[in-house]
Specification:
The complex is a heterodimer of chains A (about 180) and B (about 170). Chain A has 10 helices and 2 strands. Chain A has about 180 residues and is mainly alpha-helical. Chain A has a two-stranded antiparallel ribbon with strand order 1-2. Chain B contains 8 helices and no strands. In chain B, helix 7 packs antiparallel against helix 8. By secondary structure, chain B is mainly α. Classes of the chains: A mainly alpha (about 180), B mainly alpha (about 170).
Chain lengths: ~180, ~170
């Protein structure tokens, strides 16, 4: 579906920009363009980041698998391995705590005028990305270690996706209830 | 339209909005939301300008060519969207140091600058190593129920919570 629209590069550039504007607007309104809110999450004192992410997952998962059921969209799960996902994830976490922003929220932080984000973090992410690009050929064996590929949770469990989605959604709602009732 | 000038929205509304935005990016653009690949492409562009040499023969840039694409425009959009939101609510302000940092580490800009720069380098390496960031894995990948993304998202926070404790409270904390 919409294949012609997908392959119209010029229109897609405009759509990408517009989608980014909406995303940036939402991040700023959600307060996650602020170092204080993100560090508050990592110090487990402010759960705004987790509330936003899990609400997005809740709403997103249901809609995306609904549309996939009607073959309106195709999925794009990212490949992974122990070497890629576990090591990369932990390195990212350490950088996340030092910087107090991530690649999306730092762009929103720059938009609201945070100069530590612009002069320090933004430049740092560009340097780090470049370092990885040059290391990449040497990391082949590490990155392939424990390869599991683009598999999804319903594929691993060999069940219909709604068997996974419904319990995940219930768990997210229960987690929200616990957060709200403890005042976090 | 008063809600557009509010300083803060409920995190549940914001999250739901991001979820709905994702439906549309999948449907209209056949793309999940993501940010960190755009940083890799930009890094390549700057390196090409500085060194004057093409990076097209490098294995990494063969996978992620140094071009302006949908995701690159998306990241530019984030900056613009945040400016609009902050201007509407009167929140736009140039600030050197976040208040939580200032309360713990003082008012000098240099320590914050160096930590942010170093943090950005580590984060940049980690995002490209893991193949995505808090948006690409943490939001878009998890909503597709990808194993890689759930594992990555959990480890982003495991690493982040652990490192944040050490940074703010020291090894004894």
């Amino acid at each position: 579906m919409l294949k012609r629209l997908h392959s119209n590069n010029r229109i897609q550039m405009v759509i990408g920009l517009l989608a980014g504007i909406v995303f940036g607007f939402l991040l700023q309104k959600g307060g996650v363009a602020k170092y204080d809110v993100i560090m508050g999450q990592l110090l487990l004192k402010d759960f705004t980041v987790i509330k936003i992410m899990l609400s997005a997952i809740l709403v997103g998962t249901v809609g995306i698998y609904f549309m996939k059921g009607f073959e309106m969209i195709e999925l794009h799960p990212k490949p992974g391995s122990i070497g890629i996902t576990v090591i990369g994830g932990l390195i990212f976490g350490v950088g996340f705590a030092l910087l107090g922003y991530c690649p999306g929220t730092i762009s929103a932080a720059i938009g609201q005028g945070n100069l530590d984000a612009l002069l320090g973090g933004f430049v740092g992410i560009l340097i780090g990305s470049g370092i990885f690009a040059h290391l990449y050929p040497k990391l082949d064996r590490v990155l392939k270690f424990g390869w599991f590929g683009e598999i999804t949770l319903p594929e691993i469990l060999k069940v219909n996706h709604w068997i996974v989605i419904i319990p995940v959604c219930i768990l997210i709602v229960i987690f929200f209830y616990i957060l709200e009732s403890t005042g976090l | 339209m008063e809600f557009l000038t509010l300083k803060i929205w409920s995190p549940y509304i914001v999250g739901a909005g991001i979820g709905i935005l994702s439906w549309f990016t999948f449907l209209i653009s056949n793309k999940p939301i993501g940010c960190s690949t755009a940083f890799a492409r930009t890094s390549g562009m700057i390196e090409q300008i500085i060194t004057g040499k093409s990076l097209n023969n490098q294995p990494y840039y063969q996978k992620f060519p140094v071009v302006i694409d949908w995701e690159w425009m998306f990241v530019i959009g984030i900056i613009i969207g945040s400016i609009i939101s902050a201007l509407l609510s009167g929140e736009f302000q140039f600030r050197f140091i976040p208040s939580l940092w200032m309360a713990r580490f003082g008012i000098a800009f240099f320590p914050r600058f160096i930590t942010a720069l170093l943090g950005g380098i580590v984060l940049g390496i980690g995002a490209r190593w893991a193949g995505g960031c808090t948006s690409g894995h943490g939001i878009s990948g998890t909503m597709q129920l990808a194993l890689s993304s759930w594992l990555a998202a959990i480890l982003f926070f495991v690493g982040g919570v652990f490192a944040a404790r050490i940074i703010y409270y020291g090894l004894g904390g």
